[in-house]
Amino acid sequence: MLEYIVSLIAGFFAGYAAERRGLEFSTEKPMQTVLLFLIFFLGVSIGSNLNIDEMIQVGFLSLFFAVSTMTLSFLSTKTLRRWV
Amino acid sequence: VGLIFGFIVLLVLFAGIAAGYFELIYADVVDFLLMLLLLLIGLDIGMSESRVERFKRAWKDATILSLGTLLGSLLAGFLMGIVLKMQIFVAISVAAGMGWYSLTGPFLAKTAGAFAGALGFTSNFFRELLTLIFYPKIKDRMSGISIGGATTMDSTLPVIAKFSPECSLMAFVHGFIISLFVPFLLTLLSYFY
To answer: B65 and A65 in contact (C-beta within 8 Å)?
Structure first.
């Protein structure tokens, strides 16, 4: 996993150096392209490893996760804002 | 543009599921793609002087908001792990995506398996979708920004700006801070499962 952190930090310093030297370019298009490839391979991984029942289970669990993370984020932010 | 991209994402995901289901394709390039993505994310952060300028204007309130989002999401992941009897750190990682489904799904698929990847993708996708639906209904608009997680700097920002224009700068900075944390959090958490 170290390679992921190294990639992130290397990118950060490269971006910082590029901006210092006035080199401006957009990372939006390459990032979207890489993301789409990654999502395609996520699909391949899901399709070849999960059966229909597991996919339905993922759907239900996802809703629980989404609702609980949103609710607790809201409540903890509300509490923190009251305290600080 | 956000909706079109969301539609393309779903189309590509279903194409991948079909290809995987019928065993049409196998290529182990995910590691390389993930590193490339993280490199590009790093580049984007490193070149974001204009975002840093906006950060300076709203850092205090946005930091409190971000802290609330971070604590709430991680706590939710921990509780869901206990309730659903899942591996705790995988559950926390799913929640730590904080709406960034396009990174969380592929990352978890690679590091924790297909089930975790699918869960990471869909639960964070739902978080973005539900934010678009429910943000306008929340009375405390400032605290409500936290429900969007990392998406408040791009895909859910138009809704926030429309229903509470005074919160849009805060929402952008909040999303920016969360987006800084997500890649680091996911990588760090992956050491524990």
So the answer is: no
Interface residue A49 vs chain B (CB under 8 A): yes
- Euclidean distance between CA atoms B176 and B143, whole angstroms: 16
Q: Is A5 exposed, middle or buried (0-12, 13-18, 19+ CB in 10 A)?
A: middle
Give the ipTM of the model, two decimals please.
Answer: 0.86
Cα torsion angle, B101, B184, A26, B109, sign? negative
Compute the nearest-CA separation of B47 from chain A (Å): 5
Give the number of C-alpha atoms closer than 13 A to the C-alpha of residue B113, restricted to the C-beta side.
Answer: 10
Q: CA–CA separation, B143 vs B61, rounded Å? A: 10
Tokens encoding B88? 């705790």
Who among B43, B67, B123 is closest to A14 (CB)?
A: B43
CA distance A29 to chain B (A): 10
Structure tokens at B27: 């290529």
pTM of the model: 0.84
B91-147 pLDDT, tens digit per residue, is 999 999 999 998 999 999 999 999 999 999 999 999 998 998 999 999 999 999 999
Contact A44/B9, CB-based, under 8 Å? no
| CA atoms within 13 A of residue B120's CA, in its CB half-sphere | 32
CA distance A39 to chain B (A): 6
Q: Distance from CA of residue B57 to its chain's centroid?
A: 24
Q: Are A38 and B31 in contact (CB under 8 A)?
A: no
Name every residue whose Cβ is closer than 8 Å to that of residue B93 and which is 6 or more positions away in sequence: B77, B104, B108, B112, B116, B120, B185, B186, B189, B190, B193
